Amino acid sequence: MKSDEDGDKSSEDEVPRVPPHCHITIKCTREIAGFNGLSEAVRRLDFSSAVRDVRRFNYICALLELLVCGQRLTHLPGAAQKLLLSMLEQLADQVATSKQNLNALRALVVGVTALREAERRSCWGRPLGSRALWGHHDHAIARIHRIVNSIRIQEPGPEVVPKLHDLPEECIREILLRISDHRDLDSASSAWSVMASLCSEHRVWRELVNFHFTSQQIDSVQKTDADTDWKKLFHQLRRLYGLREDAQYAETLSLCRHCKCLFWRSLGHPCIADQCPEYRERLKEAGGPLPPHPVPPAAFLKFFSL
């Protein structure tokens, strides 16, 4: 009888987990953006768990790349620097476990190492800032290097069938047609002669062009439909317009237009439109709630003074 009462009590004590979210100041002036703290936003949005989510992994990689390669990391407060290096270490652990996205990890490690070397003698032969903080960074970077160097990609054993080489060309072609990143096509071409032959087909690049660009953008560059070099056309359009940013990530952060809150769209957030009946009625009178606005990595960083 007592155990039943304890079970009922524990179930009543359980509180629904609030999805990760972060309220922010929208204005992007340098003065107002100072009210948004990057390290606090990273904690509230649970970026540490995001590196273990295959849908959000590329988003976190792109964000770290902007901070590292743009040399913004050294302009952050010490706590934010430690937090982001910790994220990079967790990302390295995830890559070591999954054996995926190794090239993305290596690019980040090369960037952060180059940034550290550039800062090493920036002030009278010494790094600018706290010695203890840079010592912490050096240890973190060394640990990340050890993780990267320990990663070994093993070929599947003979018991794993069928292998990629066993598939007919039609299946390989269908795989290539679903790739949205031209760099992956180039890597596939260098890996196997059959893929190189298939990647040279016009259809693969035509589908890539139609995926990333609108008909108006294509018509602005394409002179005639006859004998179009679709690979050349793709790179011309890429340099002119850039690629679809939403296509690079399975999931991005979103901004709620009602409560000015950043959140992961798949997880949702506690919104005023759901919690306040009066506000919900006003929204109905105004035509209904507004859809959340996607926030790519570069737009996310603009909310902060970097």
Automatic annotation (TrEMBL):
Keywords carried by this UniProt record: Nucleus, Ubl conjugation pathway
Pathway: Protein modification; protein ubiquitination
Segment forming the signal sequence: none
Compartments in which it is found: Nucleus
GO process annotations (BP): protein ubiquitination
Major site of localization recorded for this protein: nucleus
Coiled coil: none
GO cellular component, one term: cytoplasm
UniProt cross-references to SUPFAM superfamilies, sorted A to Z: F-box domain
InterPro entries hit by this protein: F-box-like_dom_sf, FBX25/32
Record PANTHER family: LD30288P (PTHR13123)
Protein name, UniProt field: F-box only protein 25
Protein's organism: Pieris macdunnoughi
